[in-house]
Design a protein that fits this description.
- This protein is an alpha/beta fold and 336 residues long.
- It has two domains: 123 residues, Rossmann fold; 140 residues, Glucose-6-phosphate isomerase like protein, domain 1 (Rossmann fold), CATH 3.40.50.10490.
- It is 46% helix and 14% strand.
- The strands form two sheets. A five-stranded parallel sheet has the order 2-1-3-4-5, sandwiched between helices. Strands 7-6-8-9 form a four-stranded parallel sheet.
- Helix 5 links the parallel strand 3 and strand 4.
- The radius of gyration is 20 Å and the shape is globular.
């Protein structure tokens, strides 16, 4: 079992302490003094971002999947040709220096679209100031990936007139963070901690299955395991996996299936989950099932992100690895 001394020993930058404070950070960010910004006639939102900044767009895309707003995610250098006067391009770079997002920002400036940027400063803020682009500075905490809730809830405040997410749903999601914090944080380093239990169960390579509406949580889990625990992880849409991925289980391997299931999944998706569970049981393949809480889509996704992020930190500790350094990413950036 993980102890506080283990956390202190391997998590040298104290990432876990930031996660202990996620509910407080979320509430303070939503109650911040940022003013709401209005954009008229928007029917298409493009979220631009990479890595931890890209996870913000993933989350909003999932939340807006049942709205009348068309959402495009850009994780790279190029905007879609569908950008027009009814499009809002939102570029996010927590560091402010992400080369891909800066490239897209420069491209969007010359188009007939609405534009806003979020960063902690850096080149993005400088470029916005020089070109009269709306920019909101949001300080980061520890690292871009640890700053998820600060950016999400600040942006919910700033873009409240654009995003069809009610204040009641936002408050509910923060309250759910406060509830789960008691069971998954460093205050509960016991066998009852579900994040520790999941981290301990993962001994091979996780194959994370998800339903369409929870894709952002699966992506976040994969990325957190890769960055924090320095471990391989894979994700698959459960419906698409029925047509290809499932065949790979016919051979034994060190891959471990994790099923992320929503309480309100579509009826045919629930049927598919039952088939997958039956398949794994009949073939003696051990799997883990993670279910969302009840509530609105924001509450469900932020709950999963909190659980999975903490799992990745605990997995790093079990691997005797410091979750903060990202030397391989630094290597790539140094070559750009």
């Amino acid at each position: 079992m993980i102890t506080l001394s283990d956390l202190e020993k391997f998590d040298t930058k104290k990432m876990y302490k930031v996660y202990d404070m996620w509910p407080q950070i979320a509430r303070e960010s939503y109650e911040s003094e940022f003013d709401a910004i209005s954009f008229d006639g928007i029917d298409h939102i493009v979220f631009v971002g990479m890595g931890g900044s890209g996870a913000i767009g993933d989350l909003f895309s999932s939340i807006l999947s049942k709205s009348n707003i068309h959402v495009t995610l850009v994780k790279g250098y190029l905007l879609p040709y569908t950008v027009d006067k009814n499009t809002l391009v939102i570029t996010t770079s927590v560091s402010g220096n992400t080369v891909e997002s800066l490239t897209v920002l420069e491209s969007a400036k010359d188009l007939d679209c609405s534009l806003i940027a979020f960063s902690s400063g850096g080149k993005m803020q400088d470029y916005c100031n020089q070109n009269n682009i709306i920019h909101r500075k949001i300080e980061y905490i520890h690292s871009p990936r640890s700053s998820l809730v600060k950016y999400v809830y600040s942006m919910l405040k700033i873009l409240g007139t654009i995003l069809p997410i009610s204040k009641d749903d936002i408050i509910e999601s923060i309250e759910q963070l406060e509830i789960i914090q008691k069971t998954i944080s460093s205050e509960n380093l016991s066998e009852s901690n579900p994040a520790i239990k999941l981290a301990t169960w993962i001994t091979g390579i996780p194959m994370i299955y998800y339903p369409h509406g929870l894709q952002s949580a699966a992506i976040r889990f994969k990325s957190s395991l890769q960055e924090n625990a320095k471990s391989h992880a894979m994700i698959e849409d459960v419906i698409e996996a029925s047509h290809n991925n499932i065949v790979s289980w016919e051979r034994s391997s060190t891959v471990q299936p994790i099923l992320i299931q929503g309480t309100d999944d579509y009826i045919k998706t629930k049927e598919r989950w039952r088939i997958f569970e039956q398949y794994f049981d009949e073939n003696s393949i051990d799997f883990k099932k993670i279910s969302t809480i009840s509530g609105n889509i924001l509450s469900k996704i932020i709950f999963l992100c909190y659980l999975f992020d903490y799992c990745s930190i605990y997995k790093a500790i079990l691997n005797e690895t410091d979750p903060t350094p990202i030397r391989s990413i630094d290597f790539v950036k140094s070559k750009l």
